[in-house]
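Hey, can you fold this one?
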Amino acid sequence: MTARTPPHDPHARLAGRALVLAGILLSAFNLRTAVTSLTPLLDVLGQEFSFGPTFAGLLGMVPTATFAIAGVGTPRLAHRLGLERTAVLSMVLATTGLLWRSLTGGTGGLLAASTVALLGMGIGNVILPPLVKRYFPDRLGPVSSLYITVLQVGTILPALLAVPVADAAGWRVSMGMWTLLAAAAILPWLGVLRIERKAGSELARLHDRAVVPGDEAPELAAPAPRGRVWRTGLGWGLALMFGMTSLVTYAMFTWLPKLMVEAGASPAFGGTMLALFSTLGLVGALVMPSLATRMRNPLPIALFCAVCHLSAFAGLLWAPLAAPLLWMTLLGLGPSTFPLALTLVNLRTRTPAASSALSGFSQGTGYALSCLGPLLFGWLHERSHGWELPFAFLALCVVVMVTGAWLACRPGHLEEQW
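Sure. Predicted structure:
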């Protein structure tokens, strides 16, 4: 399936790459379904389980918190199990959590099940870049664009279908139906492991902890020097890119509808603008990875995204209903620094081991930085009774993001900074 696959077995190599691509795409689709299948139903669930805004806010913090925890722990887990088995574990946790959540009978189960599902999805966040690095080193841009696009589709569809399906069949079916796709994502990885075992590849020997004497040691047999990433400008630059982009995005996910309603629009219009904001993320997913692979220093992309964000903030603050489609277009292009950062994880490393370490540190640290963003944005709005301070806070976050991009986009590799 890679250079390690026996050269005399082209059918195994071709079948393996096809299965890996299927596994990457199915896993990518399932990385946000636990988030966007829940938030449109919070009012329904609040009535069902008698909880208010405080518990709803706690549920809103779970994604970034679990993604941060997964970012810290996944590199060591991947080096212990191997990337492919970790991908299986990721989707098993996602499937278990989604099914449990659809059957739960109280707030405790709702919170615990969401945590399990999102932990699996957080593991998937970290391991997909090194999987692309391992199996498609000659197609980093196209494959990255493809899986990030599928991730965006997996973000949009649950949000669009949650309420209609709940109205037709109940909230349990609405949230539980995504369990099937998470379970389906397990199957390609099981096929990959089966092919590797049959081929007797070096990857299979890594999984079994048995290396034939005289052969080169497996690439991920020992834990990568993850602790050194925090000493590099590249690691912190990507962490700031991930963190500030996620902070701004989740703040808008949470508060954009309310902002529109306070400006005089209907709740339905606010929901439509939120869907448009989410959908425009597809543009960045399709374009940015391939564009970044063609640039020695893709900092201009980050600067363009910053200008889009700041222009959208100004429009939403001073004239939200004057040109809402323009503001949503700019706001949707701003988070293109997220696919850019995912692509840089592979462009700025030479091996899957380094890619896994960099992905884990930057996403773990970044999501930890973004945890309190939506809560702080809302607190500033409540204290000031306006949107000036909240948007000033987001503007400052964009400046921090640009600083991180300056560090992350500089030509070079993580191994050199180690």
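The chain is about 80% helix and 0% strand. Let me know if you want another pass with a different chain boundary.
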